[in-house]
Amino acid sequence: MSAWNSQTSTMDMMEVENNRLADNLANKVSRLKMISMDMKDDIDEDNQYLNGMDTDMMSTTGLLGGSFSRFNKMVNSGKSNRKLMGRIILFSIVTFFILYYFLTRKSV
């Protein structure tokens, strides 16, 4: 009878240890599941942000492409447009230097 009790006691101890390890494993799996769900949420947010950036870039590309084609058409069209283009470029350069002068003068 003593051997039976010691065998039952050993089996009970093994079962308690097994249950403890199973609970420990279940906790780790639960933590991993929460981490993976958080990662999924972050990835979804990043994908939405990147899709928005892609849309913005495509609209900017279309705008710049249209502006560049109109600019080329104006430059290549004739002498009167070349005079106008020269005046626009000169105005832009003068405006840039005036702004540069005032901005650097205030900071000093």
Would you kindly provide a written description of the structure presented here, covering whatever features stand out?
By secondary structure, the protein is mainly α. Helices cover 97% and strands 0% of the residues. Helix 1 packs across helix 2 (79-107).
Task: Name a few traits of the molecule.
mainly alpha, 2 helices, 108 residues
Strand content: under 5%
Low-pLDDT runs: none
Structural class assignment: mainly alpha
Write down the secondary-structure element order: HH
**Helicity range:** over 70%
Mind summarizing the main beta sheet?
none
Compute the number of strand runs.
0
**Total number of helical segments?**
2
The averaged pLDDT comes out at 85
Q: Could you give the distance between the termini?
A: 99 Å
Radius of gyration: 37 Å
Spell out the blueprint of helices and strands.
Layout: H1 2-77, H2 79-107
Quick overview of this protein structure:
The protein is mainly α. It has helices spanning 2-77, 79-107.
